[in-house]
Amino acid sequence: MSENIINLKYGCNPHQIPASIYAEKGKLPFEVLNGRPGYINFLDAFNSWQLVKELKNILKLPAAASFKHVSPAGAAVGNPLSDALKKSYFVDDMELSPLASAYVRARGADCVSSFGDWIALSDKVDTATAKIISREVSDGIIAPDYDEEALQILKSKRKGSYNIIKIDENYEPGEIEKREVYGITFEQRRNDKLISYELLSNIVTNNKNLSEEAKRDLILAMVTLKYTQSNSVCFTYDGQVIGCGAGQQSRIHCTRLAGSKADLWYLRQHPSVLNLKFRDGIKRPERNNAIDQFLRDDVTDEEIADWKDVFTEIPKRLSAEEKKEWMSTLKNVSLGSDAFFPFRDNIDRASKSGVKYIVQPGGSIRDNIVIEACNEYDMVMACNKFRLFHH
Fold this sequence. Notes:
The structure is a single chain. This protein has 391 residues and is of the alpha/beta class. The chain folds into three domains: 5-167, AICAR transformylase, duplication domain (Cytidine Deaminase, domain 2), CATH 3.40.140.20; 194-267 and 327-383, AICAR transformylase, duplication domain (Cytidine Deaminase, domain 2); 277-317, Orthogonal Bundle (Helix Hairpins), CATH 1.10.287. Helices cover 34% and strands 21% of the residues. It is built from 13 helices and 15 strands. It has helices at 39-59, 83-88, 98-108, 127-134, 148-155, 212-226, 251-267, 271-274, 284-294, 301-305, 320-327, 345-351, 367-376; strands spanning 5-8, 19-22, 30-34, 63-68, 71-77, 117-121, 138-143, 163-167, 176-181, 184-189, 232-237, 240-246, 333-337, 355-360, 380-383. The strands form four sheets. A six-stranded mixed β-sheet has the order 3-8-7-6-4-5.
């Protein structure tokens, strides 16, 4: 490895060789402190780093992201966690610094998808955060710096092969970016327009009461969308993503996917789920998968029979009415969309997951129908005239 080129084992797939990353001018703005990150690792690293850096700059709080395949499974800032949320995330036995809280929230947004994630952290990694990461299945991490103890903890992961990148937090790329597809070079101005509170000023609904917490969560949604493969819709709540629908071909499928993830996130905090009794030796990934299965509507009798290997006793499943009653208590959720809503069906679906606040570009020929739907639900919607496609 030189200062301006890194030769990689392979590209996206093992047969794609040779592969490398390099700086056309100057040296690369990062160091690999441990491991051997691959092509996809670096794509996740640089996309996720931009997300957490931008969040920190805007919201002035430690930020974290959990990335899989160049989209965030979750992102968050370092708000304290409730006791229920700590138990839901299996960290009620851990010390949580603000940075650790941010990562726990980011990973907990969609803990099944975050299995084997790439982690981005906005601040110097402390021991509390490293201890949390040491317990999880993860491919690697990017951050501006590491405490010595934290670095040693992380280096011990994956039998010493855990990927650790230290990024120059002051690095800014050039204004123009390029990529090559099928031998053709594409060139565009980098998406360097910053997300700001000003983008929330054009409120088009009858209800114009936008709380400070909602503003924070809408900013979080927009920054997350900026680095999510399009089409995408993002649900946020209490300083964290709770559902991200990425890379879908229709807007309604984005909203349904994000909404279903948000529902699952909230159902995991139901007392019946928090009180599930696992057998000794069942690890966190297996617990997360079991909870996911426990909450499914289409689980079969054969699958339920297998639960005896996971739980000390087979639990009683939540009925549709119990789920509906619990979901009715989720309120004041925020939602961002990377492009306009073409139909009101997105608003109808969002309302089922407690959405109260929305930000989207607007510009559809059916804007008036979408606004009318928001008014029916007494939602607050801002049209920011700012599309956030990312490919």
